[in-house]
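Name: Small ribosomal subunit protein uS8
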Amino acid sequence: MNTDPIADYLTRVRNAIKANHRVVEIPASNLKKEITKVLFDKGYIANYKFEENGPQGIIKVALKYHPVTKISAIRTISRVSKPGLRKYAGTANMPRVLNGLGIAILSTSKGVMTDKEARAQNVGGEVLCFVY
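Structure predicted for Small ribosomal subunit protein uS8:
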């Protein structure tokens, strides 16, 4: 049993980037699927596929690298809100990652979105992770 599945997701992606893997397989959940969609929409991963084999399913994430320098599109991916200490942000104190160059992924009442989208829709929520 895993106590923090989101941290496990981020660690699997981080380890795959360090090992220069092209594809990483992650056990699926609805929240992980939404985080994967946000990463794809913002251009941090090349592609993804949801496979429904077994009771849980698998997310296959194709990581994105620069064609010449082979540097990953994701430089840093870190967990913010942990099960032991949840971090919430309202619209007034929404975090800015690298002064707007990175993204913060939030879980809001209107779904999983980036900090910029949450500011535009005027909603706050739990800050899941920072990506840049």
